[in-house]
Amino acid sequence: MKILKVFILLSLPACLYAQKVELKVLDNFATLRAEQTQSELKPGWTVFDIKLKDKVTRYLSRGHSSQLTDNGMPEFHITPAEDEVLADYVIIRLLNKKYYRKIPKSVIWENDYTRVEPANFSIKSDGEDGFFCHPSDTLPKGDYILLNIKQKPIGDLKDLKVYSFQVP
Asked: What value, to the nearest 5°, has the Cα angle with vertex 160 and ends 72 and 24?
């Protein structure tokens, strides 16, 4: 019975995020590994027992993503989970620091993002549940993340699961 409970608990998180996200590199698709953001809470001031200006910073470890694209128009193969919609996926450009990559604003929908939809992407069905997508415009050089903007946050600081890649 314990083995069954452990198996069920281990298999649950896989259902909460995209089943599969791949990036085309050298005419082959490489699976992008999901990374969890790390958050830091910087406490604000306390004036007359009123707390002001708490600031949350979200970042990913390492100075650059380990997954490089071939050019500025990366092609993705996204297979959404049963309760996900392709239009909920967005691409956000990260700010590079020496030892980490930072999401510009802590609240995800306040960032400048490109939604994966026909206005911004060329989208084709793979004949099953997945989609082949590549941006209509060339992405500038830098580090990016692909994420489902409507996913449930993780923990008290509301960390997210993201797929990172780098445009050389």
From this structure: 30
81-111 burial, b for 16+ CB within 10 Å, e for fewer?
Answer: beebebebbbbbbbeeeeeebbbeebebeeb
Q: Which helix (H) or strand (E) holds 7?
A: helix 2-16
CA distance 94 to 98: 13
**What is the bridge-based pairing of β-strands 76-79 and 20-25?**
antiparallel
CA nearest neighbour of 144 among 161, 126, 163: 163
- The model's pLDDT over 109-152, given as tens digits with 9 standing for 90+, comes to 899 999 999 999 999 999 888 999 999 999 999 999 999 998 99
The two three-digit tokens of residue 144, written as one number: 């990016």
Q: How far apart are CA 21 and CA 145, in angstroms?
A: 12
Closest CA to 166 of 131, 137, 139: 139
Q: How many CB atoms sit inside 10 A of residue 128's CB?
A: 7
Residue with tokens 């960390």: 159
How far apart (Å, rounded) are the C-alpha atoms in residues 66 and 162? 14
